[in-house]
Write a structure and sequence with these properties.
544 residues; alpha+beta; 4 domains; 23 helices; 15 strands; globular
Length: 544
């Protein structure tokens, strides 16, 4: 890392910089973000939500339009569901057409002939032709690689900001923060600031480039804010961002980054130009020198970070940069965010479950809970010793470990709950602590011998009828996303149950809800583990 060079040793700094490929890369594609572009992104998100996420709210004509688009003419099949479907070729073309039609994406193409073709595609999509007919007419390559490219750019941005969960062959999900942004688009800045303050890099939305960025552990918004508050004047130029800020690896690098910026500012203009010139010399094996790429990336990062907050993107010394506008607000933010805890999320599902939920925090207690929940108990124990309130952190860990003990027992003895149940598995994912982008975390997701889904929710102590709503939410998510219309059942497993819970169960009497095999949709099961009498987990030693 260049910052690890001896302070002021510019020869070594330049050599290390030209060998160091890593840098912050917060947002995709060549795009500068400003108020107009954010409003277009929000409008695109509204389109995505309207057509993809709530098919039951579509008008009669809209439902018929979607059915016609998805029909298979040769087989004369109409879909039973009016949803535009899982994220695949048909969905991408449909979304791209809506973006073009709404002038959210420009219809002007550099190639006149290509523009005419795109206009024809938009016309036939809007005119009610089916995707199968459109693909046969224009070809899949043109539709996906050309026409739909802009829709993928929008999707990438939504995922990076935690606004939507959109994966190939999965249904589209707008997260709670995404829904809040749609509902409060007139005053989007507080919501956007909320997301930017919680944005950590690296995170699993960059899984394809893990090798280059996976070692970085920073909260970019907080890192830059700490820097700019301590700099005089309170500003960071694009060159300083590209040279030093974007090469920082951990939050602990703030101090050394600050020193390098001050050292750079003490140089004469000629010396600065000489350093930039040497960094810009051609590099073997690269089309462009690293510094050129870093400067371009710095522009995008700066435009993103300054969309909200106590600063602004301004011209500084004939170049763009970050200028602090409100130091009082900056210090207030830093006092609130001083306990941010970086978490090494294992999957996109884990990341979206945390980052996409407007109510979730990135503090040390949340990190302890996450690591304990996924079985990284040693990591959770280490964090308890670093917590500002160690006693409170230990309590959080103890409660989570007790829950996990009960959960692990029944994971290994599912037959005690119902004969034939097995843990759901798909690829590297299992049904234990099954994370969803907007419905919460399912304790155990299981399947029957007939491949019907069964949700299992555990409670350490006595539980009330509030749990019914939580379990129904899980069941609804599984039914919509995994079960493909099949019945989903559930068990609530607790030490005891409030008497009112039975009224909630009897309330599920709608005649359109069948009882498969004569069983209730939600059943109760007493586990017999009294958490108040369970021994505490030792925190004195860390297992190897």
């Amino acid at each position: 890392m260049p910052l690890k060079a001896e302070l002021g040793n510019w020869e070594k700094f330049i050599k290390r910089y030209r060998r160091n490929e890593s840098q912050w890369y917060l947002i995709p594609k060549a795009k500068t973000y400003d108020e107009d572009s954010i409003r277009l992104l929000i409008e695109g998100l509204r389109i995505l939500h309207h057509w993809f996420c709530e098919p039951e709210l579509l008008s009669k004509d809209e439902k018929e339009y979607v059915r016609n688009y998805l029909r298979e003419p040769q087989r004369n099949l109409l879909p039973d569901d009016v949803s535009i479907g899982r994220w695949g070729s048909a969905a991408q073309v449909f979304f791209a057409s809506k973006l073009f039609k709404g002038s959210i994406v420009s219809r002007e193409q550099q190639d006149k002939d290509l523009k005419e073709v795109f206009d024809k595609i938009i016309d036939v999509v809007e005119g009610g032709e089916s995707y199968h007919e459109i693909e046969s007419r224009f070809g899949r390559e043109l539709l996906i690689e050309g026409f739909s490219a802009n829709s993928r750019n929008f999707i990438n941005i939504y995922q990076r900001l935690g606004l939507a969960w959109i994966e190939k062959n999965h249904l589209v999900t707008i997260t709670s923060i995404g829904k809040s942004l749609i509902e409060n688009d007139a005053d989007y800045r507080p919501l956007l600031e909320h997301q930017l303050r919680r944005l950590q890099f690296y995170n699993p939305t960059f899984e394809r480039i893990r090798g280059r960025y996976g070692h970085i552990r920073v909260f970019p918004f907080n890192f830059c804010l700490q820097l700019i508050v301590n700099l005089r004047p309170h500003e960071i130029t694009k060159e300083e961002f590209a040279l030093f800020v974007t090469k920082s690896v951990t939050m602990e690098d703030i101090g050394i980054c600050l020193h390098w910026i001050r050292e750079f500012r003490s140089l004469s203009d000629d010396r600065k130009k000489n350093i930039m010139r040497r960094l810009g010399r051609p590099q073997r094996g690269r089309a462009r020198p690293l510094i050129v790429e870093s400067l371009e990336t710095a522009s995008k990062n700066i435009s993103l970070l300054t969309l909200s907050g106590p600063w602004a993107r301004e011209t500084i010394e004939s170049s763009e940069g970050i200028l602090l506008k409100d130091i009082k607000k900056a210090r207030n933010i830093l006092s609130k965010d001083g306990k941010l805890q970086f978490v090494e999320f294992e999957s996109k599902e884990s990341w979206f479950c945390q980052y996409g939920d407007i109510s979730r925090k990135f503090d040390i207690e949340s990190a302890i809970d996450y690591y304990a929940r996924i079985g990284k108990v040693n990591k959770a124990k280490e964090l308890t010793r670093k917590a500002p309130d160690i006693k409170r952190a230990e309590e959080v860990l103890q409660e989570r470990l007790k829950e996990k003990y009960i959960e692990d027992f029944y994971r290994d003895h599912l037959g005690l709950i119902e004969s034939g149940l097995r843990l759901y598995r798909k690829g590297s994912r299992t049904g234990q602590q099954f994370e969803t982008p907007d419905a919460g975390i399912i304790d155990l997701l299981t399947v029957t011998p007939g491949n019907l889904f069964v949700v299992i929710e555990f409670k350490r102590e006595k539980t009330s009828d509030e749990t019914i709503g939580q379990v129904l939410r899980y069941m609804g998510w599984v039914k919509r996303n995994l079960s493909l219309g099949e019945i989903v059942r559930a068990y609530i497993v607790a030490l005891d149950f409030d008497k009112h819970i039975n009224y909630s169960l009897h309330g599920m009497q709608h005649p359109l809800i069948p009882n498969p095999e004569g069983k209730n949709l939600i059943q109760l099961y007493r586990h017999g583990f009294d958490a108040s009498r369970m021994g505490a987990v030792s925190l004195n030693a860390i297992e190897q």
